Fold this protein.
Amino acid sequence: MFTLGSWNPLWTLRSCLLAVLLLVSSGDEAAGRGNDTRPNFVLMMVDDLGIGDVGCYGNGTIRTPNIDKLAQEGVKLTQHIAAAPLCTPSRAAFMTGRYALRSGLGSTGRVQVILFLGGSGGLPPSEITFAKLLQKQGYSTGLVGKWHLGVSCESRNDHCHHPNQHGFDYFYGLPFTNFNDCKPGEGKDVLVDLQVVLWELSLLVGLAVLTLACARAAGLLEVSLKVIALLAALCLLGLVVWYVPFELLQTWNCIVMRNQEVVEQPVNLDTLTLRLISEAERFVERNQHKPFLLFLSLAHVHTPLFTSKDFLGKSKHGLYGDNVEEVDWMIGRMVNVVEKLGLAEKTLMYFTSDHGGHIEDGDTRGQKGGWNGIYRGGKAMGGWEGGIRVPGVFRWHGRLPAGRVIDEPTSLMDVYPTLVRLAGGELPEDRVLDGHDLMPLLEGRVQRSEHEFMFHYCGMYLNAVRWHPPDSDSVFKAHFFTPNFTPEGAGGCYHTKVCMCHRGFVTYHHPPLLFDLARDPSESRPLSPSTEPRYSDVLRRIGEAVKRHRETLAPVPNQLSWGNVLWKPWLQPCCGTFPFCSCTEANTTAGQSS
């Protein structure tokens, strides 16, 4: 009970002052949050989606209402270009705003992507991703889904290439990718011809050992036991070298991690879709009161195709169409959570694919890869448009004009400077950046892209160059070489499903094949001096640009060398005791906080 004798004026005055200070402080904090004009970012990237697979880019049979609505409410880019036609180099360029060979992720031979989680190659720690720069600006940063840019360098736990070391506070998903070995019965993807050679050699040596042992026992042939033992050891070694890394690939590569902990090995594809989208939604909900970056990197529509039962058999294009329609549903879920939380006017949403559809991928059950519309080629076919021209949609209510369509050359690498500048960060000045801030173009303040020239690589090799002359609507593209399609005249490199980029697998063109994409987007009618008055001048200007570009390149360690990509047991992520790696995520629907 309060009594007059217990009243202390000094204590009361201190309490009032403290209450006032707390109210002012909380008001300032709330005002500060309200005046923070920096947007949130939700980046949504599909794996292997063809530009022709989406309704707003011309598909009239696959249903993509959520993606189409995103384009109607935002800006659609029709000449949005990936820096490479394969996952690892394209994603490296996207994350760094730089061509992949600047990071050592341009291939010199047949290995063009990360092959094993237990390899030592990946995105070098010296690279500065947009996530790192946003992290410095106080953003909460999360990656949900596919990474495919390496994990460790020298020991299982150094995680030097891991998303957590590249600016992402939170990671949940596939540190590798979804590939055929992840789904029993879908065949093999990794170095299949080498696997066959190892298996056949082991069998031949084994048969030789058996024959020699029987002949010696029957007295038909004098053979030293040491020779038989040596051959037997070689046979055993061959079987081990084949079986351990390759037959157990589902265990080694198909895993789910939460941050740096393996939570599922191998992955359960039946529940993966719901887990990924639920994790993405929860990340947004957890961080709704502060600036955040979410990169939702979908495992769809890379083969093997996996589809939830609610979408199975619902499209007009088989399992692949079902996959695309499920992707659209996931995009709709992300849009809904942003709008439900009242963040639409504070959030820049972006939708794209890492490169074009894999048009060669199919079997007796039908086509399993995507459709690239009118554009020639596809995934892993070098610089042909079908492999590098991808969807590009930006939506930001109240900031970007609805329904705007831009037919200027833009790049996935442009996302880097766009995000960093909107977040109030500074771009690195100690390295060459190849992307340009897109906001002036998206908002309509300028009409021309800053990309006068764009360089299209096939591995380490400059495959083609695009030139958009400042005084013309033409977009010229010169191909210095093109992949050899097998069989001749076919639509791709069917024997391997991945075209090679080095000598012996390509045809060089002297002079280069030249097209005007503004008049011939399908790259079907090469120009000549008789059909293009500027022919010689165009090739000269492109040659000068190539020379200037090459002066900006510096040698870096090759992250895709055989020494870096082959499996190293001591680097293999594992739950449990290696090599007995096995675990299942305890609750496949409940999320955890970052």
Residues 38-179+254-581 form a domain with the Alkaline Phosphatase, subunit A fold (CATH 3.40.720.10). The chain has two domains: 38-179+254-581, 192-246. The longest strand covers residues 506-516. The radius of gyration is 27 Å.
